[in-house]
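Hi V.,

Quick status before I head out on leave. The structure for the redesign project is tokenized and pasted below; the design run finished overnight.
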């Protein structure tokens, strides 16, 4: 799909709308024929009135008005009733076909959107998609149905009345016909610019809608950086652009109708003058002139409707047809082969064979990755944030396919298997749990829609969430809220685990499955997952190495490459990257409810700025740290705040927001804010909790006492901070920037 800033190869035209109309009306041809007949009945009554008017005027001129008025009145009444009935039935037929067409359009668009999958939704602004389901579908409703029917009515009226006009006076009829090519030429000349302007308007409207959605999601960032005025100014700029584009598009569309209408009115004036002249010279009877002017007014009205209402609407619709076709013609990144087969039950091995993959071509995630996961094996993928751990799961789930190489199940390339049949063997607990705006019970049941209430409740019990649910006023019928807004992060994650239990998969994928849980609940859930893992293949992605310790094999990934792999014990003995990460995350004690955390003296001295402390001073310093907890999205501090506290993350993940476009994660064992121990300068970044976090912190006043006991500590802190800032890349300096 083209981005909002791209231009199409050519401006959409009215013919685009007509082709789309044929496509969507074709299944309703019988109804269309009935509709045309009904419209013809309506127009025939109008024509008969004009012809009758000619007879009356001519007879009156000759002094002969001896009519059978009762019979005449009855005939007119019957004709009126037939025309009125035809109009009502035509309205019903139009409404019915409109409903069917819009339903098919919505269903087709939504079904294709589902086929496009995760890859499409991640790279496309939501406003662009929603705009197609709102403003574009509304334009299609008008252009493909109501305005199209109005155009059919006008066309039938013109075609039905033109022969009568020629019969009344061919000379005047020729004058009337002059307006048709003139109007067509003008519409053709003005239509292209009008369509391009409307396309620009639609794209800018989608941009505004995306901006609103983005601001709703980004409220923590907007607040953290005090960006309210900046975002308001940016939004005002976009709205001003929409206003200008709306003026341009509206004027150009109106110009099409106005010029067409004026051409019709001009011809009407000419016809009236010429008709009066023909009557004065005796070549045209008064009755014929009256009937001609009446019918010409009808034809002119129809022509005016075509110019002022129908053609502009068809132009606007052509833009929406173009945008909807963009969506429907978008090719999914993951294709299901026509020759795909149903995969056998997984029993052998899952292999990544020389896999290369990138979300963006200029930023490869994997380049020749080889990974072998045996059936029944528990493999844990660990490494720093952004190393590619979760991408392994994305490829297993076939949210994406490799750019080269292949992922196989028991030797079968996943690209040659039925997508849904493969996913039926999987269950996943994602880092960001997605809940539907439905009851809690139904949110669990989505894993297996045919599950009974007892099975849903048993899965919740095993996930340690059943007790909480039963305490709610509506129990399992309690709404979860939009995106699970009524639940905490930990509660949402336990519901996701209950889903996985209910699905009873052959392969269980865990992406930070316990990251939002406190230690007590994590132990319960880990025990449940441990029992559930028996006899199953489990792939765990985690930044917390304690969650990987029990795995059969731990794979350490960094920058898309496997650095080392083996059991916990083997990797510790190897003294490699895993041992470094383990040392960073150990040395802390955390209560089961996460309210109290401690750091031991040895672990404190492993932090470079405290390395100069002797054992007794380090023990004293460790005792002065206090525990602080932060909920997801909660700010630790803002950019510009006075720096007076140093932090160590005991558990959880945080984001350091350096600017609007630069942020990076920190996690268990990372520390930040060391310069705060020396002076009260302002923070140079904002830090926000991504998950529920437990930290320990030390105030500058407390640190002052340590400086008195160990004068060399000040120099150590300054040197450590300077070294980190100089040696670490920008994306990791989030934790080390002076003043952070």
């Amino acid at each position: 799909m083209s981005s909002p800033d791209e231009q199409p190869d050519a401006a959409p035209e009215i013919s685009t709308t007509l082709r789309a109309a044929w496509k969507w009306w074709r299944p309703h041809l019988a109804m269309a024929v009935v509709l045309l007949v009904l419209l013809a009945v309506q127009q025939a009554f109008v024509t008969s009135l004009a012809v009758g008017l000619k007879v009356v005027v001519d007879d009156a001129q000759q002094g002969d008005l001896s009519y059978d008025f009762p019979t005449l009145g009855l005939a007119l009444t019957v004709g009126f009733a037939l025309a009125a009935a035809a109009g009502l039935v035509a309205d019903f037929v139009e409404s019915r076909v409109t409903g069917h067409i819009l339903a098919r359009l919505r269903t087709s668009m939504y079904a294709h959107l589902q086929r496009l999958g995760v890859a499409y939704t991640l790279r496309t602004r939501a406003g662009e998609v929603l705009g197609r389901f709102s403003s574009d579908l509304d334009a299609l409703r008008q252009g493909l149905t109501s305005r199209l029917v109005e155009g059919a009515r006008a066309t039938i009226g013109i075609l039905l009345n033109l022969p009568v006009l020629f019969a009344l006076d061919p000379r005047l009829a020729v004058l009337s016909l002059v307006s048709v090519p003139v109007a067509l030429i003008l519409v053709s000349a003005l239509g292209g610019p009008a369509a391009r302007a409307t396309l620009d308007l639609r794209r800018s409207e989608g941009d505004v809608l995306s901006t609103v959605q983005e601001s709703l999601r980004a409220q923590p960032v907007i607040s953290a950086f005090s960006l309210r005025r900046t975002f308001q100014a940016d939004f005002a700029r976009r709205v001003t652009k929409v206003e200008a584009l709306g003026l341009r598009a509206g004027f150009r569309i109106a110009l099409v109708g106005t010029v067409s209408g004026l051409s019709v009115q001009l011809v009407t004036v000419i016809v009236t003058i010429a008709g009066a002249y023909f009557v004065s010279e005796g070549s045209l009877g008064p009755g014929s002139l009256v009937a001609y002017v009446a019918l010409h007014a009808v034809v002119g009205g129809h022509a005016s409707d075509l110019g002022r209402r129908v053609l502009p609407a068809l132009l606007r619709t052509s833009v929406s047809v173009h945008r909807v076709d963009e969506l429907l013609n978008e090719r999914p990144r993951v294709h299901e082969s026509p020759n795909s087969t149903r995969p056998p039950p997984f029993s052998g091995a899952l292999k990544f064979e020389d896999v290369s993959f990138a979300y963006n071509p200029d930023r490869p995630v994997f380049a020749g990755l080889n990974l072998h996961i045996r059936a029944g094996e528990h493999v844990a993928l660990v490494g720093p944030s952004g190393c590619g751990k979760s991408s392994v799961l994305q490829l297993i789930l076939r949210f994406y396919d490799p750019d080269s190489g292949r992922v196989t199940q028991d030797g079968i390339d996943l690209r040659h298997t039925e997508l849904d049949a493969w996913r039926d063997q999987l269950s996943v607990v994602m880092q960001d749990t997605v809940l539907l705006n439905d009851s809690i019970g139904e949110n669990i049941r989505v894993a297996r829609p045919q599950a009974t209430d007892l099975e849903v409740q048993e899965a919740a019990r095993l996930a340690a969430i059943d007790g909480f649910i039963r305490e709610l006023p509506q129990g399992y019928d309690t709404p979860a809220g939009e995106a699970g807004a009524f639940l905490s992060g930990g509660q949402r994650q336990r519901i996701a685990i209950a889903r996985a239990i209910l699905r009873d998969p052959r392969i269980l994928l865990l992406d930070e499955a316990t990251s939002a849980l406190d230690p007590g609940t994590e132990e319960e859930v880990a025990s449940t997952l441990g029992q559930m893992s028996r006899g199953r293949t489990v792939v765990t992605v985690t930044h917390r190495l304690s969650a990987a310790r029990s795995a059969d094999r731990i794979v350490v990934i960094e920058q898309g490459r496997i650095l080392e792999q083996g059991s916990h014990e083997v990797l510790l003995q190897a003294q490699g990257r895993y041992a470094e990460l383990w040392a960073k995350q150990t040395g802390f004690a955390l209560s089961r409810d996460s309210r109290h955390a401690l750091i031991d003296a040895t672990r404190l001295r492993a932090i470079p700025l405290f390395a100069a402390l002797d054992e007794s001073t380090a023990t004293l310093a460790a005792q002065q740290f206090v525990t602080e907890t932060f909920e997801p999205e909660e700010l630790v501090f803002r950019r510009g705040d006075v720096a007076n506290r140093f932090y160590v993350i005991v558990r959880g993940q945080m984001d350091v927001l350096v600017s609007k476009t630069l942020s990076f994660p920190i996690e268990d064992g990372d520390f930040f804010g060391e310069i705060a121990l020396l002076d009260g300068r302002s923070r140079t970044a904002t830090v926000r909790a991504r998950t529920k976090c437990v930290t320990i912190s030390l105030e500058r006043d407390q640190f002052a006492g340590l400086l008195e006991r160990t004068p060399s500590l000040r120099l150590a802190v300054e040197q450590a901070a300077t070294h980190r800032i100089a040696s670490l890349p920008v994306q990791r300096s989030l934790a080390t920037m002076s003043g952070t």
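Above is the designed sequence. Confidence is low (pLDDT under 50) at residues 1-11, 727-740.

G. will cover questions while I'm gone.

Best,
W.
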